[in-house]
Design goal:
The chain has 834 residues and is an alpha+beta fold. Strands 12-11-10-5-14 form a five-stranded antiparallel sheet. Strands 9-8-7-6-13 form a five-stranded antiparallel sheet, with no helix packed on it. Strands 22-21-20-15-24 form a five-stranded antiparallel sheet. Helix 1 runs parallel beside helix 7 and helix 17 packs antiparallel against helix 18. The longest helix has 31 residues. The relative contact order is 0.08.
Length: 834
Amino acid sequence: MTQSPKIALDDRRSGGGLTSWVTAGICALLLLWMGLGWETIASRDNYVGKKPDYYSLLVHGFLKGHLYMDVIADPGLESPDPAVRARAFSLMDASYYKGRYYLYFGAAPAALFLLPYAWLTGGDLQPRFIVALCVLTGFFFSVGILRMAARDFFGRTSAVFQIAAVAVLAFATAAPSLLTRAMFYEVAIASGYAFTMAGLFWSYRAIFGKGRTWLQLGLASLAFGLGVGCRPDLVLALPVVAAAALLAAWRMRDRAPFARGLLRLGTAAVAPAAFVGALLAAYNYERFGNPGEFGVTYSMNYFMRGDKPLFSTGYLWPNIHWYYLTPPSLSPYFPYVFPEEAYFGPPAYPWGEAIHGQSIVVVMGALVAAAAILAWRRLRVGRLGAYLGLLAFMFAALLVAISAIGFRGDRYLVDCQPSLVLGIVLLAGAAGAAGGWGSPILRAFFPVLAALSAAFNILGGIQEFGEFKNVRTSTFQVLESLGNYPACWLGRIGVLAAGPVELKVVFPTDPKVAAVEPLLVAGTPEYTDSLYVVEWAGGKEIELLGDHSGFGGPRSGVLAITPGQAYSIKIDMGAFYPPLSPPFSTDYGARKIRMLKSGLRVEMDGRAVLDRKMNSYDAPPWTIESGRNDITMNPFKTEFTGRILSQTRLPPPTLLDKRQTGLCRIRCVFPMDRPGTNFPLVALGETGSGTLLYVSVVPGDKVRFGVDEWSIGGGISEAIAASPQSDHLIEVLIGPLAAGTKWPADWGVSPQELGRFVHSLRIWLDGRLVWTTRLKRPLDPLDPMFDVGTNHQGFSTAQPEFRGLIMEDPYIPSEAREFLGRNLDSGAPAAQPR
């Protein structure tokens, strides 16, 4: 092409590709930090020993000479009784066929990476390394394409453009969404990303005559074929290498007849991918007796067990709209970016994860397209235009493929978005080099949108599933503390409000049937805290119901009301306050912020009608909405049919210290579908000096109770039978707190009697004493950090939150007296050894 003397992106001080590669190195370090962190790299356990993840189980099977995962299936799965099959334990998202588990995710990562590692070392590599290294590989191949295109078409580009372009290729591909969780899903997708970018790299070299064309096409074909071995939908990228062969043959037509060249190059482009395809077909045939069956038909998940179609053209528009045309939810609190509102799709839509979407990339792409149109007459891209066309085809084909599935997820975009952002960057470089009206637009806005796209994907990756917060807790806490200073400052000057909300409400006057309707909601999709009113038929009685999205919440007693009368409802919940982290904990005080964040208190006309524990999310202040809730997925109604006359924000209350008595009663349903997992029941104290009571789910409808005292450890009970799908009552006597409580004199409880329990923890399940153990750490009765169902302290022993229904059920005085008496009557505690 002929370079314009007015090169918009020219900067005579730029150092060729040095800036690009230095920026790429910095981006690579950031990607490694997101995906691994020093903790993962330094831990010897990640390099040795047997791992229980799906890909490692598949490798164990390969080493034993078979193609199924090395895990024994529950015999109940083969029962002719549907009820028995339904209760049998199964591996989620594995394929079950003839008594064996298989992996329907591509075998290429296992065969190429994990199997050789196991052969060489005798152990398994943590799959997180595969995800991080494959993301880095795909990124560096894309930077290589950018540098080749810059030399061929752009001339000298400014340092600003180089930094912006490389940052887009590093982060705006949606690949950061793979890094924080790094399960078997992400292993397959990251590997596919690496191979498709390698295929695009060698396709570029073939089209533009860099190296031996037949060799470049062969490498591209092999890479695309291996991509299919990771992700079957990537078969739609194979036409790219065929088109590359056609373009290369056309370029070389002056050296050899076009037909002969096309046959030679076409063979190079087809043979390696065909060979990989033959191996995949043989692999599938040996497993399922069908060369085209990857195992999806036999997968153990909602899709195949339900009656809704997995693929449908009716899913196309909703998914595309959610992926690219719906903005995310924003928050003043770190990490700022939260899932978009993407709940209510077509009636047949089976399910979907919380997603952030990529609307910012659409804006960036639109800007670059506009600049290219303005520079159209000066744009001289030649064969680069053909390469951009191949990228556009690849993006469109794969977007349609993932959008035709009745399931959405941020990670699926990694199949198609890398080709989109690569095309955007190459077009931006070409349009900037052409000059004209498009140049000032690119110079002013492209770096800004590139920075926003990169930041959005980094922050969205950190937020994804809450994994970074849960797995790398200390690192997240540092980032959160620093990142929340702007919001803290805005709170201090009154821009971000905190405190209770008062509603003036007229309840529906004559509901014909009972209904549950929203009074108030606060939060972002998937992270909401709500208050509902349960309206009884006739309109003379109601109940109030709290909801911590995904976990339920407390319920008031039955309240009599007068139809048509206006009531003052004062609501105070944890979502109305900032996060528990510094600097907010410094401003509020650690005790006060913990108490504010862990309760739900409702007053009606000045009388407390609901005052219970309820955990909370960190809701942006502007998300509080009364009388409507269409962002929380539950079976309740989305609109209040009464009237909300007013909504007023009140200042935070003055709280009195609340003394813990050491008696705790919990109602819950055990998550029996998660065997081998520990869930928090009661957590006391702070990170580094707390005590955790947890429940461990054991196969065979059993549970075990355990305790963990930070830096001390703890014991665990014997397995105890527990009916699945049933409500269970757990009663806990925390001896150090109960012994220090001054009980009413007429209860006849002497300090000497309770002194027997001063170092004891006793667990009663459904009225039966099941475990007694010894506590060593002193406990503070005024400690507000007393939580049910959560693990805010970050104990590694248990999950961050109890999975399922759980709620604290406080004792009334007569019940507390009975429970104390029951413990005293049961004799002196005989603690099990720890």
